[in-house]
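Today's session is about reading a structure prediction critically. Students often jump straight to the picture, but the first step is always the sequence itself: look for stretches that repeat, for charged clusters, for runs of hydrophobic residues. Only then move on to the predicted structure, which in these notes is written as discrete structure tokens rather than atom positions. Here is the chain we will use throughout the hour.
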Amino acid sequence: FHSGEREEKCIIEDVPSDTLVIGNYKVQRWDIHKQDFLESAPGLGMFVTVTTPTAEVLLSKLYGPQGTFSFTSYLSGEHIICLQSNSTRFVAFAGSKLRIHLDIRVGEHFLDESVVQAKDKVNEVNFRLEHLIEQIHHISKEQNYEREREEKFRKTSEETNSNILWWAIVQTLILISIGIWQIKSLRDFFISKKLV
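Below is the predicted structure for this chain, in token form.
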């Protein structure tokens, strides 16, 4: 995505609890003379801030123009990941555009290729088996999180439907009582004027 030099960009990532989140990023600065983005942005760093669903800051750190950040969520919900350059230019003079390449991986543990390429096949199979077990645990956590969200949504829907039913009953009772009151008032009016 593109960003201004002093602009903060935030991404919302829905993460289950106890899940590792790894983010890789690279910043490129716009070159006016070449009319293209430079391969790197030397001297330019990125502030990375991660906020939990309860608005608690989980990570706040300055990184270089290219880097990796990681955190482990302890709450399930929407985590806000914000990136902002550490440019020291004034806002009026910070007109340069930035291109930010961001790759976020949730709950993923990477295979170490040096271990995978080991000559001992037993260690390789054992390592791959451990990796698969970690992935199964992650998938299980993700499914439990989705079940919790579905149950919360279902309860909210049922409460809303119940409230709508009671509101309709109250409205009907109010309309009937107003109708009875109007008929009685009209009848009393006609009797007092001796029209009936």
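Discussion point for the tutorial: Residues 2-120 form a domain with the Jelly Rolls fold (CATH 2.60.120.680).
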